[in-house]
């Protein structure tokens, strides 16, 4: 296990290096001068002299290789850079916004796993009409765009029933109840499609495991079908489900911008889009690095969990 962990860590660091390099190069070949955009955005006069002075102050007049080396050495010292917009450290933005996105992603994951796995196993076991109806609902949940689901939930629970606020964010320290109320609708918007994916994968995995000879043997030996399903079938079927959950969580870390904009949730995805629009290179690079590191970490946790679910994996 220790050797496996070291190998995965080394691979993760190499992948992270390539992500850093790729995003650095891609941002610098985009059209538009950050210094000019910054001057215009601040209401300044974008004269050639002013643009040249600002490029010098920001270090953008240095050769690309020099900028790249300075950025890498800064990362090794834990410095994510400084925002071009206001001179604030990128790490400060990440520390402020990341917990809000993580809260949203984790809440949606808990709902999807708690609902999708039991329903997927149940429909696989029941079959017939129940399974057909469930598959139709799952297909609808996967196909429906998140913004359509969000608009429907806002209309139903915020406008018609008036049970929940339609959008906004308050900190837990300021108003715990208010924060939880504002978390429900964006969480459900993310969780509905996520639940459908988990449910479909669980159903397929359970059907595959149920057809194995050892399951029929356990049932023929007199074990109750529910015990066989819960203690043996579901446990052995969770590996592919866990893979999908890990990948989906990683995608949510940087892909919830529509939900965050719709519900006015100040998370990391919205900040990333704004940084790209403003050509704020250090902010974009810092956010992407954090998201990539979290994504790689999630996949490492998923890989490490396989031997716990399937003892056969411990021998590899």
From TrEMBL:
The keyword Transmembrane helix applies. Its main location: membrane. It is a multi-pass membrane protein. PROSITE patterns: ABC_TM1. Signal peptide: none annotated. InterPro entries: BPD_transp_1_N (IPR045621), MetI-like (IPR000515), MetI-like_sf (IPR035906). Belongs to the binding-protein-dependent transport system permease family. This is ABC transporter permease. It comes from Phytohabitans kaempferiae. The lineage of its organism: Bacteria, Bacillati, Actinomycetota, Actinomycetes, Micromonosporales.
